[in-house]
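Quick note —
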Amino acid sequence: MSDFLVFDLETQRSAMEVGGWNNIAEMKMSVGVLWDSSLQKYCIYFEDQVLDLIEHLKSGPRVIGYNHIGFDYTVLSGYYADGEIRAEMMEQFKGLNNLDLLNDLRDRIGKRVKLDAVARATLKVGKSADGLMALKWYKEYLQGDLKKLDEIARYCQQDVEVTRDVYLYGIENKYVFYEDKESGIKKVPVDWQEEEPVQKEEDSFQLSF
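Predicted structure written out below.
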């Protein structure tokens, strides 16, 4: 199997705090986590390491996530200047060798399903917390409880682990399951075989914190 990355991040602010879902780029990252199959380890990045995270994402292997194209990449784009540069970065992110499991499953079944619904049905495990709890922990971190940042990192890492294991299950079995509120456990055939990564020209932009 070719090397791959699994990516997730948590934000500092909610949609409500930044004026709605049209302003995802203003949410800012508290913690980002990558599973790197070539290193066989989790790589944890905090806000002051966001450029290192971006370079890791652009390093070549396939990037696996759950709504990472629409959400997590948009958060990262917020660290670049407004306007054309931010839009250019989004195009670069979208041009990576991505597999967004949320998007893929939505295309197959015609609706969005939560990661927790897929993980519980496929792996018999659930998420350890939720995004609202991670936002609460970040506020407590800002108030002086520095250990809360580590809690966010552990939660984010668990999401990455679940996403990785769902992906590997789909690769091995050619299907996954999800919980449907109306009809129970449903089986979804998937085709997640890896593609050759596309080489992209590297551009450099100045971060604006």
